[in-house]
Amino acid sequence: MNFFEKILYFLQKEMERPSSYGFYHFFCLFIMLLIIIILFKKKNYTEKNLKIVLATYAIGAFILELLKQIVWSFNFDPSLNLVTWDYQWYAFPYQLCSTPIYICLICLFLKKSKLRDNLFAYLAFFTILGSLSTAIYPESCFVRTILINIHTMYLHLGSLIVSVYLIMSKEVELSKKSFFNGYFIFVITAVIALIMNITFYNLNIINGETFNMFYISPYFISSLPVFDVIQSHTPYLVFLFLYFFAILSGGYLIFAICKLIRLIYKKHQHS
Question: In Å, how far are 80, 113, 168 from 122, measured between CA atoms?
Fold first, then answer.
């Protein structure tokens, strides 16, 4: 192995697979809550601080995602002293939970505008669904590889921090117009995922591996709980409609909860 390959082999070091509500899970949740409390206590919601939050998350998540892609493609057989490379198409970085990386990077270069507001609404009401799911029950995301476990929690809990910060700082307007603008961004990202699923499959470039961005491919059963059953027992268009409706409903629930919390907070301030 050359020096670069030795580094990759080191990054593949293993640990005992974490479990939901075990030490590692609680530790990550504690760090996340601590950061949110610090950001909330300071209440210093300036454009500069907004960019710091976006940059900290986006750059860190991008580096970890890049390392994940390389490490999962790298294989070393000690008995043969042989290095092989095999890209894992199922891990292609375009899922609902990985889009915050790209959205945050884009928003770093955008001034306050309608486009940026809509992108922020998408982060606040929709990508937060995947982040919350992982924060509550990360069991399926945990593996034995140390780097991947670090990547998983940074990606999802970091994105959750960004979403909460955008709501706390009032960068996202809690209005139905803002909500539906965010949903429109989701639809665009999901349609891109669907186009990728169909294109990559029919171009025969995935070497027979699973490629299921946003878990809505017509060629592979979704691995999302409940949706796997729906896709297995209903026509694809019915499954797709229910998927988009479920995301809309989940996003609206987040929106309604945020409105309620803000209302209670305002009443508490005036009491």
Answer: 49, 14, 15
**What is the tens place of the pLDDT at every residue in 160-172?**
999 999 999 999 9
Instruction: Quickly tell me which residue has 């009491």 as its tokens.
Output: 271
State pTM to two decimals. Answer: 0.94
Over residues 110-133, the pLDDT tens digits come to: 999 999 999 999 999 999 999 999
Q: How far is CA 88 from the centre of its chain?
A: 18
CB 47 within 8 A of CB 110: no
Instruction: Tell me the HSE value of 162 on the side-chain side, using a 13 A CA sphere.
Output: 37
Euclidean distance between CA atoms 193 and 99, whole angstroms:
11
Q: What is the DSSP string of 68-111?
A: HHHHHHEEEETTTTEEEE---GGG-S-STTTHHHHHHHHHTT--
